[in-house]
Amino acid sequence: MTSQNTYGYVRVSSADQNEGRQLAAMRVTGVAGERIYIDKQSGKDFNRPQYKKLKSVLREGDLLYILSIDRLGRDYEEIQEQWRILTKEIKADICVLDMLLLDTRRGKDLMGTFIEDLVLQVLSFVAQSERESIRERQMQGIAAAKERGIRFGRPKIEMPEDFSGVVHAWERKQLTLNEVLARCNMSKSTFYRRMRKQPNVRER
C-alpha cells in the first residue's frame, strides 16, 4: 500500500526574498507546516539542502505542491530531469498551483501525458529564458556602473608611503606586530602578503 503524504516546496532567491505568497498558497492546499520545505537559494541548479531533504522523504503516491515551475528551478534541462526523477523514479505526484495543467494526478492517459510534457517543456524554457534575461540585465548594469567609475568588491587597502620603513622597523624589533598592523591599517595576513613583495625583507 502506498503512502498519501502531502508536501510543499518553496524557493526564494536573492531577487525574491519574501516567501509569504508561496506559503499562503501552501496553506490553502492544507499542507502541514512541518511538511513545507523552504530553500533561500538561486534556482540555477538543484544543489539545495531543503530540496535534497524533500526528495529523501518523498515516497510513491505522495503529492508535492509548488506554486510555479520557476520555484522548482530555472534551468531547462535540470527541471526536466528533476521532474522525471520525482514522477518516474520516486513515483510521486506534482501539482503546480498556478498552472493546473501540470497536475500529474490528472490525465494519466496518453493524451494527458502528452499535454503535461508539452506544458512542462514550454514553462521550463520560459523559466530559463527569464534567468538568462535577468543575468544579462545584471551584466549590463554592472558594465554601465563601471563606466561611471563605480568600483565593485572590497575596497583596496592602500599601501602607506613609508611601508618599507615600517617593515624594516618591525624587523629591527623597533615596532611590535600590533603596532605595525595599526599603523598600516591592515590585517595580519594582508601585512605578510604585502611584506613578501618588498625587497630584502623576510617574514618572522
Main sheet: strand order: 2-1-3-4
Gross geometry: elongated
Quote the CATH topology of the largest domain: Rossmann fold
Extended strand count: 4
Give structural notes.
The protein has two domains: 6-133, Rossmann fold; 155-204. The protein is 50% helix and 10% strand. The chain has eight helices and four strands. It has helices at residues 20-29, 49-57, 69-72, 76-89, 110-147, 163-171, 177-184, 188-196; strands spanning 6-12, 36-40, 63-66, 93-96. The longest helix has 38 residues, at 110-147. It is elongated, with a radius of gyration of 27 Å.
Summarize the SSE layout with pairings.
Layout: E1 6-12, H1 20-29, E2 36-40, H2 49-57, E3 63-66, H3 69-72, H4 76-89, E4 93-96, H5 110-147, H6 163-171, H7 177-184, H8 188-196
Parallel strand pairs: 1-2, 1-3, 3-4
Helix pairs in contact: 4-5, 6-7
